[in-house]
Amino acid sequence: MAMTADGKIATANRAVHSFGSARDLEHLYELRATADAVMCGARTVEISQSILGTGGEKFRKLRLKGGLAEYNLRVIVSGSGSIDPSAEIFKKRFSPIIVLTTERASAKKLKLLRELADEVKNCGEKEINFRAALIWLRAKWNVNRLLCEGGGELNDALFRAGLVDDIHLTICPKIFGGRTAPTISEGIGFSKLTDAEDFQIQSIRRFRGELFTVLSRPK
Ligand SMILES: NC(=O)c1ccc[n+]([C@@H]2O[C@H](COP(=O)([O-])OP(=O)(O)OC[C@H]3O[C@@H](n4cnc5c(N)ncnc54)[C@H](OP(=O)(O)O)[C@@H]3O)[C@@H](O)[C@H]2O)c1
Q1: Does residue 95 sit in helix, strand or coil?
Q2: What 3-state class would DSSP assign to 214?
Q3: Ligand 1 nearest atom to the CA of residue 170, by list position
Q4: What is the dihedral of CA 121, 123, 124, 126, to 10 degrees?
Q5: C-alpha 128 to ligand 1 mean position (Å)
Q6: How far is the CA of 8 from the centre of ligand 1 (A)?
Q7: Which secondary structure element, helix H or strand E, spans residue 4, and what is its range?
Q8: C-beta neighbour count of 56 within 10 angstroms
């Protein structure tokens, strides 16, 4: 995640959602090159128009060198099946697309999504059971390492489920402000300090004007 100095990942009107440097983008592709699958929430996929690709031949070679498939699997989370069928990601067929959804998705939406994605998986009645979803992804699609690229709502669900091992956070020296501008973890959150997810700082690297940090769950 790229975050401003005031903790935002986009502006309040969502018009600005990409603000890291070229180095930060390269870092994102490097991270994708370590993961079997890349996962995003429906709004992020729509707003960024990302196809969740590898980033090019250089990164595909890195993947192969690291013993991974040439292309990462792509996972979209859309509990009500509201993901826009005309999103860019569905137009590029280089690797399988999996949609994780719930019983809240209507039959009509499911039918459409099944035409667009390689698999649409019902992962719960109202809420996605992410622990079960990850176990299924490992068993069915051989996903041992998964990179979640947000947004804030999806991140929150993973934090609350205790499923985040490492956070790669790029701090960009900008201020967006705005009460409704999203942060790296939105949604429901924790209400008690004792429930909060704890992480330890693994590394901090400064490159030009940005701080590249890695926070890890204590072993
Ligand atoms: N700076 C960065 O690094 C960065 C990275 C990523 C995103 N962003 C920005 O963050 C903003 C989007 O964040 P966001 O929090 O609004 O959206 P999001 O998490 O990308 O997507 C929210 C949608 O995803 C589905 N979803 C997420 N969590 C779910 C869960 N636990 N169970 C079921 N469905 C779930 C739901 O789809 P349904 O409505 O279909 O149920 C929900 O409406 C955008 O502005 C984006 O550009 C910034």
Answers
A1: coil
A2: strand
A3: 3
A4: -80
A5: 14
A6: 14
A7: strand 2-4
A8: 9
Ligand 1 center to 77 CA (angstroms): 8
**Ligand 1 pocket mutation, candidates 77, 98, 106, 126, criterion most atoms within 8 A of CB:** 77
Q: What is the pLDDT tens value at each position of the chain, 219 positions in all? A: 999 999 999 999 999 989 999 999 999 999 999 999 999 999 999 999 999 999 999 999 999 999 999 999 999 999 999 999 999 999 999 999 999 999 999 999 999 999 999 999 999 999 999 999 999 999 999 999 999 999 999 999 999 999 999 999 999 999 999 999 999 999 999 999 999 999 999 999 999 999 999 999 998
* Atom 4, ligand 1: residue with shortest CA distance: 9
Residue-wise burial string across 119-129, b where 16 or more C-beta atoms lie within 10 A, e elsewhere: ebbebbeeebb
